[in-house]
Write a structure and sequence with these properties.
mainly alpha
């Protein structure tokens, strides 16, 4: 990985952290949003589980943000943006995350 790629990955991870810690929780407070979660760690769980295709800590070391590849960081930022813009269904993504964790039944 070149220095430029490392910097790009770091920038993407910074964007992911900003989106999950500030932007999405702030949007969740809006009365127009009927999101199942409001806390930053919940957004991180959903996004990481989704990009990993299962429980994130089965795929990444902790803390996850330090171990995201460039591709994973790109997909995480894109998913956060899609959630914020209403292009991704946060209710469905949360439900799938809970299914992977054995905390919910598989959606029909």
């Amino acid at each position: 990985m070149t220095i430029d790629q490392k910097e790009e990955t770091r920038d993407l991870i910074d964007a992911y952290m900003h989106l999950t810690k500030k932007v999405l929780p702030q949007l969740a407070l809006s009365y127009e949003r009927h999101w199942p979660v409001r806390e930053d760690h919940c957004f991180q769980r959903i996004v990481l589980d989704t990009i990993c295709g299962g429980v994130w800590y089965d795929h990444l070391s902790r803390p996850a943000y330090k171990y995201l590849s460039n591709d994973q960081a790109q997909r995480a930022v894109k998913l956060c943006q899609d959630i914020a813009e209403g292009r991704a269904d946060l209710n469905q993504l949360n439900q799938q995350s809970l299914v992977w964790r054995g905390k919910s039944k598989n959606p029909s």
